[in-house]
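The passage that follows is intended for readers who have already worked through the single-chain material. We present the inputs for a multi-component assembly, then the predicted structure in tokenized form, and finally a short commentary. You are encouraged to pause after the input and sketch how you expect the pieces to fit together before reading on.
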Amino acid sequence: MLPPDEGTLKAARKAWIETRVVWEQSEAFAFGPAGSLGYDGDLDDWPVNEVDVAAVLKDSKPITPELINSLQTTQKGFHTIELLLFGTNSNKVLPFSPRELEYLKYLTLAFDQTAQNLKQSWVAGVQGKPAYQTVFATAGESQNSAYPTQKAAVEEIVQGIMGCLDEVGKEKIGVPLTAKTTDKLESRFSYTSLEDFKNNIQGAENAYRGQITDSSSKGGESLSAWVAQQDPQLDQKIQQEFQAIQTALAALPKPIETQMTDPATLTQLKVSQDAILKVFETFEDQVLPLVKAKA
Amino acid sequence: MQIFGGRWSKPKFLKWAWLCGLVAIATLLLSQILHPTASGSPLAGGQTTVLNRSSTAYEQPAANLTATDLEEHFAGDLAFDAVFVTPPARVNAGLGPHFNNSSCVGCHIRNGRGLPEKGQLLVRVSRPENQKTDQNLSPEPASLNSYHAEDYIAIENTPPVAGLGTQIQDQAVYGQPPEAQVEINWQEHQGKYPDGTPYQLRSPQALITLSKGQPLPPQIKTSLRIPPPVFGLGLLEAIPDATLQSLADPEDQNHDGVSGRPNRVWDGQKQAEVIGRFGLKANQPNLFQQSAAAYVNDMGVTNPLFPESNSDIDQQTLKAATFYVQSLGVPARTLLDNPEVKKGEHLFTQANCIACHTATLQTGAHPLQALAKQRIHPYSDLLLHDMGPGLADNRPDFLASGTEWRTAPLWGLGLTQTVLPYSSFLHDGRARSIEEAVLWHGGEAQTAQKTFKGMKERDRKALLAFLNSL
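Having made your guess, compare it with the prediction:
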């Protein structure tokens, strides 16, 4: 392995941030094998066990795939890679020690394998189990042990959106807002917690609109299209409320990690939180009952 | 397509009613509108019932919490989610040094029934009772100076094993050896219904290797466990002792072949022997103690009830996590109007499964008002029953013998694999489906199991459809 230079370090950090986008956008529909087969924990546990990460770096035991496999989830995945790449306050500088590079390399390989497994569990099935996309798509069929009705599958999408909104509003923003510190900001090592908020919200909106990225065109089959059919005003209201969240988040200073003592930041965080919880309420009070009554 | 049966489809109505303080009247009206089936209604958890048949169904706050309760529930949710790390740390310090997992939710993923996999599966151990010391346990058990000895109390009949205590922590902070490594080998068993239909069961064999590489001596008693679901437990805590005693029939005086009895366990706060109701052998008296024991035994997080030399978490955190579990709602039943489900429910009763899986109970008083005076459908009597040699762990725990287990509540059962795909059933997760779980029933449940086996295929399917509607 060639020693990293400023260019390769920048590229690695950029790759981390880009991977994060996809993951955070997927959290609104992370039901299924992501939880039960432990992929979610392996990829994205939090916080980092900084003491034990330091112990790995200090140790002389060779770093191997087996060693990585034996580590706690808080010594691998996104945030440990983040800590090693960015340092505790987005302040890490070259050179990296050979041990740091080895640890990073094997963590990244393990991460990639876990991500592949997660994909596999949906598209082809793992450990002899059926592909989860098939399980989900056959909701309502008599042998389906996960979704005995199609309505339950629609509800899954709605609950996923609500769960994501709830988590960003009450936990990812709510807890640091109350504590007024950076301690509980999710991606505080890389100073990208604000990107996480935005991507989580984008994921919730994508789940609603039946799209993968903001740029892809809105297809015919989506929760949004169905709601619009039942109640066009409700659909419009939801779209506007999502827009209001993105506007509120866009007004936050970037990076947010250095601004947590500024009262203006805290005020704007509260505005964002309120906007998120507003859409949550709309889903809880209007979309969910509509699904239960008519889907 | 109906998910909550007939006219029961408007949670907004329920919420509105609650806001107006009319929930009692609303529920009464609803349960009259929804012509009750044998178990009563879709409201499995009384007024705590949540209308949710998605993967989040076990994570919902009870429907009848007050605004203050909800705030407390949310604080508890954070405690339940908190992932502990090796001290010192800015956030969540206190893990280990020995542990099975680093958060409550790490085992109880989405509050559901877990899988027999590392991080979820745990092994309880004890010394044979007639063996007062470890001298006969050769070779040397484990690292004698570095292991987690779980608290041992006078009336407990699970003497700790040197180097292990009463629970194997198969993980440790970096640089320390775990107490042991646990590997599961599955043994397949072929079987046949009387009508000739074949089936396959599997049972686990644990290969336990101590930290120095030697196998666990065979005379050590072991019991494999997977995490049970955690919703609805507050309601079970609110069932009066007298109710459990009235359900008990230790001498089988009604001659139905079923003779349940409550466990008697140690209450560390009261310093007294009381009825046990939580845990797979009902060896915990209440959720506070259950939670405190889980913190210290499963995560190595010391706490006010089990402080050891210091407390990693304070009383408030321990109470918050307990409150979270107490205040979770129970998912409503689905497909109530489905003829197959109705037939299955009838068959379930006819086969006398309800002798232990009691359909309806009434809660008494509870400090959390939302749990008090609720008519609930847990499908459990919380009593110990002999389940036969096939399921026996041969490790007694207080009054529970080596063949006895506490009746598993069946509410929310049909959502098991919605919440956690591929998760499995029974204490050690050996049953890959509800059908396999039924087939494992022996001992006092042998007659019911035989009745099930003897049913026509479509009746067996109907009974399983009923269980899936819970």
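Commentary: DSSP finds 13 helices and no strands in chain A. Chain A touches chain B through 56 residues (CB under 8 Å). How closely did your sketch match?
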